């Protein structure tokens, strides 16, 4: 089906859907006591759920400067989401871990994601959601993503 001149561009629709998703996520997190979450926090959460790492590894994974990663980590540490612990393999090094608060925020975000998907299934059906996932998954492959921070999410 071809779009008509008054139809929003696909990019606009994708952007609006994403922004609405973020607003709903931030609202849900705030209602559960996580009203201080920043946009870059999600990238760090995603990296640290895979395994603990030091600031240099985090910076490399996010393809940002070590100083930039250290600033993000320091901010998240002050808000109680991450902590530094000695590296068991190298006593001089420190690894980053999610704190109890960080794990609670992550669990709240995951609950939101599950609930939002369930709402989409109720509204549009499981076939529509499966198709949406397949299309978005094909568009957002790691190889296609130009932004290094987005690639870090894979």
Automatic annotation (TrEMBL):
Q: Where is the HTH marR-type domain?
A: 7-141
How is this protein named in the record?
MarR family protein
What is the organism of origin for this protein? Answer: Nocardia amikacinitolerans
GO annotation terms (biological process): response to stress
Q: Which PROSITE patterns match?
A: HTH_MARR_2
Q: List, in alphabetical order, the Gene Ontology terms for molecular function in this entry.
A: DNA-binding transcription factor activity
Kindly give the InterPro entries that the UniProt entry links to this protein. Answer: ArsR-like_HTH (IPR011991), HTH_MarR-typ (IPR000835), MarR/SlyA-like (IPR039422), WH-like_DNA-bd_sf (IPR036388), WH_DNA-bd_sf (IPR036390)
